[in-house]
Amino acid sequence: MTDILLLHHIQGLTPGVIELADRLREGGHTVHTPDVFEGRTFDSIEDGAVYCREVGFDEMRQRGIRQAADLPERIVYAGLSLGVMAAQWLVQNRPGALGGLFYHGVIDPAEFGAWPDGTPAQVHAMDADPEFIDAGDLEMAQPFLDSHDEVELFLYPGNGHLFTDSSLAAYDEGATKLVVERSLGFLDRVG
Predict the structure, then answer these.
(1) What confidence tier does 138 reach under pLDDT thresholds 50, 70, 90?
(2) Which of 33, 102, 126, 156 has its C-alpha lying 20 to 30 A from 70's C-alpha?
(3) Is the Cβ–Cβ distance between 21 and 176 less than 8 Å?
(4) Rounded to whole angstroms, how far apart are CA atoms 55 and 131?
(5) What are the C-alpha distances in Å from 124 to residues 68, 152, 161?
(6) Using H for helix, E for strand and C for coil, what is the string for 82-125?
(7) What is the pTM of this model?
């Protein structure tokens, strides 16, 4: 099956991130879940952001990128919110990427260079998530999404940001079930 590097969100490598990885593992895939926060988890997005500002967001991205060094080239890069920064950079810049799974965020590909021709990806977010909609992720990414048929956008009803993390208040079981089903279908196609 498929190797996946799954990079956690701004609250850290929570039990809910591990549970999401386990659901992908149940599909027969190998999921690597490194901890780029070195054991720290945070009770809120705001607390995680304070830590990231102290360390530096570029350093956070670099920590995620370094996690791929010993992994196969033919891999899917996945990220949850903050983790999308490194996952998307890897899709765009590390040779051999099978694709990307971007949960709760997407970056303008121009930030990291050109999108590799034909490389598939999925973006999953809620349609009223202030971190995704109001912060401009969708508006910024829309021209990219419109011009790349191999990149799919899935919007779910609701306003939760980290809605796939079962250990957080924003968790939405129904939406997460769809995310997992669509992600497993994607992994089966690219693997």
Answers:
(1) confident
(2) 102
(3) no
(4) 21
(5) 22, 9, 10
(6) HHHHHHHHHHHHCCCCCEEEEECCCCCHHHCCCCCCCCCEEEEE
(7) 0.96
